[in-house]
């Protein structure tokens, strides 16, 4: 049998290696041939400091092996491996030190896209087209984020939404919407059997186990387990200086410190896991990406998908009107002096200086619509799978990264704490050729965007007139949207009142909620509302069933109707009761469960009319 030293010499490790990294060299016999290759790569990439404190063989050998297990994972989960990560990091750190402008040579202009107005004829045409296409869709939820700004102890997909009224968390709401789309799409296309819409969730070490548990303990909220795929993103190595030396974990000298790489990982994961290929073989045509806490999004999905299909967009970014200088990125066309061009999200703090530097002395200003001509990116993307897959075959899903080191001083020679490369899902178009069809769909924010990102304290500090993006505003936005949709469908819905919760002033509309299968599109809602109905501001209306028809209903209180799929229920007459009053809760009151506290309110369910129709048949609820 050959000795470890003979084996090592066969692998090409010479005397220099022994003198330059003596502590590693002494321990080489502990490593497998693959690990020795990785050790050579680390030394070649000037990472010898990682081994400075390695003790003699026989001491902490298990930890040394675990170190290389970690290196193996870091190497295989990054497109191009760790060497490529270090090389890219060196380039980006050098650009950051010299203050290089990433937009040098680019001129911004307004790209072309579709501006929709909820409920009008064009909108309904796109919704119809989108529902037809949905049977060829797959959904991807990115849910690996830490949610530091929200500061909630659980995972974000298990919070809120409008849980107070229906008991549904975000994940349930999303899954029920996908299932409703699946069914509706099959119906309109006259399909014999429903095609299961695939649903992928990107998790991370911070969210994976709890997401799995949430699904398992709720029977996947009605979806087939095989329909759902969890893809776990890995963290990336931290960097301790401008030379991209990897940082050791301050708690453990045998581990490299790691931090999240950002939601841009989703592209590489879909590709490397084989999921995209499987979807393509299964006939998927559209891949829809969305985020963990937006209770409104699915109201915008059918029409936006219709836009993608009708316009033939390879990439369609969902957007909302944006006030000039508002703190969300603007979708922008960038044209370079060398002829390159792309349609991309430009962060708000970069857009204004870029416009000023390229012949627009006023920078980012509102146009005649009262909004900036650059629509606000909400980071929900629809890709056409064919061109997307072809592009990923070339790039492996690698997304242009950035680095954001916090320097100790103006010399920019040292960092306050380690940094790492990051990437964003919306930067995917940066590598696309100019022939790629990249567009956007703008929809009013009230119908498309109400994320839950900020904790109550930070939300209360948001300047007046800007969105809070808190648990309070996220839930109230759903009641407002549903009330406004019912208004457009002909119901008289009383005006909201202003109220303050956790230091945030919000509009409080009647608490109207429905299951996705009741009103997936505006056409569905219109079909289910007839005659002259009215809802007072203090009311709560929960519609938990498919075929519930509202006809000449006067509601002043709380009404909850639940029906099985075979039941058809006509609801009318006058419902008047004490209803569900809103009670304020202070977020500092720790005797109240966290998910209630962070919203700042709960319901006092004093009196309601609650009816269930589980059997098939026709029913009438005449109060
Ligand atoms: P956010 O901007 O909300 O970031 O991410 P976050 O990390 O969740 O929260 P903060 O910044 O710590 O407060 C937008 C979306 O991207 C996902 C999030 O789960 C959310 O749906 N995300 C973010 C990932 O999936 N992975 C990441 O590494 C980062």
TrEMBL record:
Pfam families found in the cross-reference section: UDPGP
Keyword Ribosomal protein: no
EC nos: 2.7.7.64
Enzymatic class: transferase
Coiled-coil zones: none
GO biological process: UDP-N-acetylglucosamine biosynthetic process
Family of this protein: Belongs to the USP family.
Official protein name in the record: UTP-monosaccharide-1-phosphate uridylyltransferase
């Amino acid at each position: 049998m050959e000795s470890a030293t003979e084996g090592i010499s066969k692998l090409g490790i010479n005397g220099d290696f022994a003198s330059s990294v003596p502590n590693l060299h002494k321990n080489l016999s502990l490593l497998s041939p693959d690990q020795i290759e990785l050790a050579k790569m680390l030394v070649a990439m000037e990472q010898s400091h990682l081994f400075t404190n390695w003790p003699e063989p026989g001491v902490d050998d298990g930890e040394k092996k675990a170190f290389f297990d970690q290196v193996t994972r870091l190497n295989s989960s990054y497109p191009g491996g760790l060497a490529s990560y270090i090389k890219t990091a060196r380039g980006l750190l050098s650009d950051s030190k010299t203050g290089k402008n990433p937009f040098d040579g680019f001129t911004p202009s307004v790209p072309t896209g579709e501006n929709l107005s909820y409920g009008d004829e064009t909108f309904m045409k796109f919704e119809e087209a989108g529902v037809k296409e949905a049977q060829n869709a797959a959904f991807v939820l990115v849910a690996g984020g830490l949610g530091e700004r929200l500061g909630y102890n659980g995972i974000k997909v298990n919070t809120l939404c409008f849980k107070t009224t229906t008991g549904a968390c975000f994940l349930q709401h999303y899954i029920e919407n996908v299932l409703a789309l699946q069914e509706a799409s099959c119906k309109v296309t006259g399909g014999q059997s429903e095609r299961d819409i695939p649903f992928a969730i990107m998790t991370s070490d911070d969210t994976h186990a709890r997401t799995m548990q949430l699904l398992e303990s709720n029977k996947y909220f009605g979806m087939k387990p095989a329909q759902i795929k969890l893809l776990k993103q890995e963290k990336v190595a931290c960097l301790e200086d401008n030379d991209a030396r990897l940082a050791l974990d301050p708690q453990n000298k045998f581990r490299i410190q790691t931090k999240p790489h950002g939601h841009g990982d989703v592209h590489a994961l879909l590709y490397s896991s084989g999921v995209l290929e499987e979807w393509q073989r299964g006939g998927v045509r559209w891949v829809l990406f969305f985020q963990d806490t937006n209770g409104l999004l699915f109201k915008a999905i059918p029409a936006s998908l219709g836009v993608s299909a009708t316009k033939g967009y390879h990439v369609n970014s969902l957007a909302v009107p944006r006030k000039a200088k508002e703190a969300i990125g603007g979708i922008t066309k960038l044209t370079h002096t060398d002829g390159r061009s792309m349609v991309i999200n430009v962060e708000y703090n970069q857009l204004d200086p870029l416009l000023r530097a390229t012949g627009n002395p006023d920078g980012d200003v509102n146009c005649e619509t009262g909004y900036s001509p650059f629509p606000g990116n909400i980071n929900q993307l629809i890709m056409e799978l064919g061109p997307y897959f072809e592009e990923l075959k070339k790039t492996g899903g690698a997304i242009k990264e950035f680095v954001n080191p916090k320097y100790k001083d103006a010399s920019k020679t040292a960092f306050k704490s380690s940094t790492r490369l990051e990437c964003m899902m919306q930067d995917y178009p940066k590598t696309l050729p100019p022939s790629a069809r990249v567009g956007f769909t703008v929809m009013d924010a009230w119908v498309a965007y109400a994320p839950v990102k900020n904790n109550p304290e930070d939300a209360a500090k948001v300047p007046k007139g800007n969105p809070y993006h808190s648990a309070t505003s996220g839930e109230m936005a759903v009641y407002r949207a549903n009330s406004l949709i019912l208004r457009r469908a002909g119901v008289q819905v009383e005006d909201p009142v202003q109220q303050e919760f956790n230091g945030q002033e919000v509009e409080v509309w009647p608490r109207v909620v429905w299951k996705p299968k009741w009103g997936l599109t505006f056409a569905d809602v219109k079909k289910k509302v007839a005659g002259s109905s009215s809802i007072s501001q203090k009311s709560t209306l929960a519609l938990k069933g498919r075929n519930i028809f509202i006809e000449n209903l006067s509601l002043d209180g709380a009404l909850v109707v639940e029906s099985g799929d075979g039941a058809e229920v006509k609801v009318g007459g006058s419902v008047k009761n004490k209803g569900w009053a809103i009670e304020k809760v202070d977020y500092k009151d720790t005797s109240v469960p966290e998910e209630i506290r962070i919203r700042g309110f709960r319901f006092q369910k004093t009196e309601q009319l609650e009816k269930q129709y589980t059997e098939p048949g026709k029913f009438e609820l005449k109060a």
